[in-house]
Amino acid sequence: MKQIKGGVTAAKGFKAASTAAGIKYKDRTDMAMIYSEVPCAVAGTFTTNIVKAAPVKWDQHVVYDSKKAQAVIVNAGIANACTGEEGMGYCKATAEKVNKLLQIPTDEVLVASTGVIGMQLPIDRICAGVETMVPQLNGDIESGHNAALAIMTTDTHEKEVAVEIELSGKTVTIGGMCKGSGMIHPNMCTMLSFVTTDAAISQELLLEALKADVEDTYNMISVDGDTSTNDTCLLLANGMAENTKITEKNADYETFTKALRFVNETLAKQMAGDGEGATALFEVKVIGAETKEQAKILSKSVITSSLTKAAIYGHDANWGRILCAMGYSGAQFDPEKVDLFFESAAGKMQIIKDGVAVDYSEEEATKILSEPAVTAIADIKMGAAQATAWGCDLTYDYVKINADYRS
């Protein structure tokens, strides 16, 4: 596997475009489009929030009923959530506009929205945006990059990644972009992720691969514990690499899933590290667990602890907060057997051994915790299973951003 420059346009046959439609923002692009030259097998995972946005409901129909897609329309600024039948009608109207311009069946057009909940989309601006983007569709790296910029809300930077692998003697590319900074606590933040590949693979295996991968990537991040109404991850495969089509779990499938994991994990970590107001990516590894599920519960409990997140912001080695968060997670372990370490680019040090503090330097610990990426490693000494979760620190700016988000 080789990481390359690019995002959603890195794979053969995929094009992108973006535009300033004036949906909410007045000084930037706020719509993006992804298009494949040929129809794609499509997979998707979506929010488990009972309150689901109209685009989520629309895309579930495309993924599970049509099982094919050729275009994605994304807007930032308004979420099209809690908008009733009118909101669903706007999804249809968007797809119909794409159908008119590109002759793609409406049930093969995916839509996604992110932004303020409860507001109706200005559908005239959405349709005008589609009209503007279609002639601009391009497969170059810059077009994909600009699409990643257009879907941001409170994100501080675009998020994209691409890799190349070899399947049955053919070069296959997987690329993706995502947005997410606040309202991040997926159960599949406001999280949108779009991954494209020119691999030839059956829709059934594509869906199985994505669902399995999401459990260890997007579902292991949290910024603020809020599960969005719009969480969506879409994976499109157009087969244009012309590899032998993957229809069974063979060596090519394993290679593909490993590359997909890298792409999704990279995007997930970019979202966690760009949490609203955040100054650091906070990674928690639980090792020595009896089961993977136990390790997942423990690691996610730590990254969602407000007290722990605040300590990371303060570069304070307040290990009691970590042990406390593990203790109320619901997973069983012996706190008197836990070893805890802090690690970053500045070094690694043990903080507690068998549940008791060791003689460590607070000054050195602060130095380690002052890096932009910090890891806590908890060994619970019960087995060989492990899991990793990603979050961020909790700062004053998180409250500032969310206190007046609608205005």
Automatic annotation (TrEMBL):
Gene Ontology biological process: L-arginine biosynthetic process; ornithine biosynthetic process
Pathway assigned to this chain's UniProt record: Amino-acid biosynthesis; L-arginine biosynthesis; N(2)-acetyl-L-ornithine from L-glutamate: step 1/4; Amino-acid biosynthesis; L-arginine biosynthesis; L-ornithine and N-acetyl-L-glutamate from L-glutamate and N(2)-acetyl-L-ornithine (cyclic): step 1/1
Catalytic activity: L-glutamate + acetyl-CoA = N-acetyl-L-glutamate + CoA + H(+); N(2)-acetyl-L-ornithine + L-glutamate = N-acetyl-L-glutamate + L-ornithine
Listed EC numbers: 2.3.1.35, 2.3.1.1
Keyword Acyltransferase applies: yes
Alphabetical UniProt keywords: Acyltransferase, Amino-acid biosynthesis, Arginine biosynthesis, Autocatalytic cleavage, Cytoplasm, Multifunctional enzyme, Transferase
Alphabetical list of InterPro entries matching this protein: Arg_biosynth_ArgJ (IPR002813), ArgJ-like_dom_sf (IPR016117), ArgJ_beta_C (IPR042195)
GO cellular component term of the entry, any: cytoplasm
Assigned protein family: Belongs to the ArgJ family.
Binding site residues for substrate: 153, 179, 190, 276, 402, 407
Organism of origin: Roseburia intestinalis L1-82
Protein role: Catalyzes two activities which are involved in the cyclic version of arginine biosynthesis: the synthesis of N-acetylglutamate from glutamate and acetyl-CoA as the acetyl donor, and of ornithine by transacetylation between N(2)-acetylornithine and glutamate.
Molecular functions (GO terms): L-glutamate N-acetyltransferase activity; L-glutamate N-acetyltransferase activity, acting on acetyl-L-ornithine as donor
Record's subunit section: Heterotetramer of two alpha and two beta chains.
Swiss-Prot/TrEMBL site (Involved in the stabilization of negative charge on the oxyanion by the formation of the oxyanion hole) positions: 114-115
Protein name as annotated: Arginine biosynthesis bifunctional protein ArgJ
Enzyme class: transferase
Subcellular location: Cytoplasm
Residues of the active site: 190
Lineage: Bacteria, Bacillati, Bacillota, Clostridia, Lachnospirales
